Please model this.
Amino acid sequence: MSIEKETLKTVIRFRRSWISKRLNLSNPDLNANLTTLQRFDNVKRRLSDLSKVLFELYKIYNSNRELYGEEFLAFVGDKVIRNYPWKDLPFSSVASQNSENNIREHWTPISFFRDAFMEENWTENHFFCALLYYYRIVNITNEENQQLEALTYRTTRPLTAYSEAEIQIHEAELWSSLYDEFNIQENIIHNEIQNENNNLNTL
Model:
């Protein structure tokens, strides 16, 4: 990459005049005075922005995987996705309502979104769809977390994990209103994929 003289000049001027600025991280809650649906609308916008970031990183990684190795994937999961700000609409289990020692749990493990970087021909829309429907934070109790581990679902987390571990969502009505349409479509598509696989097996 060549650097134009005017570009370099701008950067040098900024560096010479630069004085470190203290970030104000004590801003008021961005969700204050918002309804749940308004908060979810803001979350969708942030997830849309995150999908743009992920797509650019996806292109960088897949243009030359050997340049960074799998350390790049760890960075995407642990730093970019996990720490991206204001993207959570936290849910909670029924049991956690009467518990003080709760765990902040990813309904779908972060590794799912990280491993999408190994898939071929993904677009920004693929990442947005994955984030919108599978990225969910749930507060659960230590006991519920142990139930997931006992079922060996701590890292794999099939979609039936919560029901098998008897974890009930406290905000069940909101959960349904936000995701039921997707769940219906997912079941239809799942059946289509199953039928396609069955047809291939009979050839």
Notes: The chain has one domain: 33-181. The CA atoms of residues 7 and 56 lie 23 Å apart. The chain has a mean pLDDT of 91.
